[in-house]
Amino acid sequence: MNTNTILYAAGCLFVAVGLSAAAAAAAKHAVSQKGKAFSVKELNVAVGDSVAFVTDEGVKHTILIKGLSANSGMQEPGQEFAVTIDQSGKHKVRCGIHPKMKMTIIAN
Ligand SMILES: [Cu+2]
């Protein structure tokens, strides 16, 4: 093994460790929907995190996040809708069926 081979191997290892660290840092958040309301009014996340919306009642919802172009379509009870938050800022979340269902995702 010459010096170049060793440097190349070290470089690959460095990249691999870097990628796995980035993947491990992204958190998954859960928001449930019950009583035609989101379980939290505000949720602080880091850019790159994901938010999973789950329905805990026998009611259909349609989750819309305008700034992220996210649209769950008709979400059946028990279905999960997960969104990766890829932009910083305040993202207003609403339900297309129930006008009073609102929350905000704050991404930093
Ligand atoms: Cu709804």
Offer a concise description of the structure.
This protein is of the alpha+beta class and 108 residues long. It is 21% helix and 39% strand. The longest helix has 23 residues, at 3-25.
Overall description:
The termini are far apart. This protein has one helix spanning 3-25, and strands spanning 28-34, 37-38, 42-45, 50-55, 63-65, 70-71, 80-84, 89-95, 102-107. The chain has a single domain (26-107), classed as Immunoglobulin-like (Sandwich). It is of the alpha+beta class and 108 residues long. It has one helix and nine strands, in the order αβββββββββ. It has a five-stranded mixed sheet, with no helix packed on it. Copper (II) ion is lined by residues 36, 61, 95, 97-98, 101.
The CATH class name reads Mainly Beta
Mean pLDDT, as a whole number?
A: 87
Percent strand: 35-45%
* Spatial gap, N to C terminus: 45 Å
**Gross morphology:** globular
Q: Could you describe the largest sheet, including whether it forms a barrel?
A: 5 strands, mixed
Order of helices and strands: HEEEEEEEEE
Name the descriptors.
Immunoglobulin-like; alpha+beta; binds copper (II) ion; 9 strands; 108 residues
Helix/strand layout:
Layout: H1 3-25, E1 28-34, E2 37-38, E3 42-45, E4 50-55, E5 63-65, E6 70-71, E7 80-84, E8 89-95, E9 102-107
Parallel strand pairs: 1-4, 3-9
Antiparallel strand pairs: 1-2, 4-7, 5-6, 5-8, 8-9
The structure holds copper (II) ion.
